[in-house]
## 1
Amino acid sequence: MLGIDWTDDVRVRALAQEALDQSAVEVKLAASSPIDHKLMAKVDLFGLAAIMLKTMEECAGVGFECHGGPAWKAFGKALWAEVELRKLQAAIR
């Protein structure tokens, strides 16, 4: 539905940025307007991404590697890179 090419690193990184920037307003909009299937799919994907990041973080904390298929690996890599960049930017400020 979202037409994502998981091998396109630039697009996947942009999607990761969007996932981390997703606002509560967008979530409410998707819930109140189930007509926008693309927005609903993004909200679902971004919610799963948050769960994935938390799971990967917890697994890494106990020395266990966990990941999904190629799409999740690509998205997870982009999410981690974006999180690390934001941490660095916050530390510089």
## 2
Amino acid sequence: MSLVKSLRNAILYKGSNEFNKQELIGILVFTLKLMDVKSAKELIEKGIESGVIEERDGVLVINEELLESEEKKECLRDEMASYIARLLGWTEQDVLEEARKLKQRYGELDEKILVYLFGMDKGVDMSRFKDRLEV
């Protein structure tokens, strides 16, 4: 499950955007049953690295404005992955995994750009998404 969806579910469950680390892990793993402990810890680290989660005096604070911004990016990424998967007869997850492998060729690009490039690389007409990409 994605960073955005997981954090959004945790906020909805608790009714707050502030957690201690163990509490957030407990909600993600045991209450919502979204992932295992290792994945939850990795998700929190990824959130801190991306700035979606801030650590203040031992409290994890989820920046809801950044979360919303990331949500919009994921929405387009998922829409493109679904479109590509349907045309190629693949699963969305396979498309996303293959798109992530393009980091070796293109470097650290946003995932929606990687999915767009993957579609183009596979000969899929991606023109319907071109205007919606923010580069």
## 3
Amino acid sequence: MSTEDTKKGGNPLTIFIVSLCAAIVMAGGFAIVIEAFILAAANLFELGSTFVWAASGANALLALWFAVWTFVRSWHVERRLRAGLEVDQPKMSILGNLRG
């Protein structure tokens, strides 16, 4: 890669793919670990299938939020780096990272 390519930033398609992959890996790993805890707790304390379904639904929603946040944060950081700015502190809001 030349210095000029580095200064102007990456291809938007490449940034999209990298952001999507990061979101899948982070949210997927998070969801798998939490689901293992849910199933272990349900079996250990005999909580029943209602608990498993409710907790799994909450886990799915949380993982979806985490995936979207990770994607938007990655896109935001790449956009700042492309503009020659420093990486800022992460915001917990999805919209805050979009506006940033």
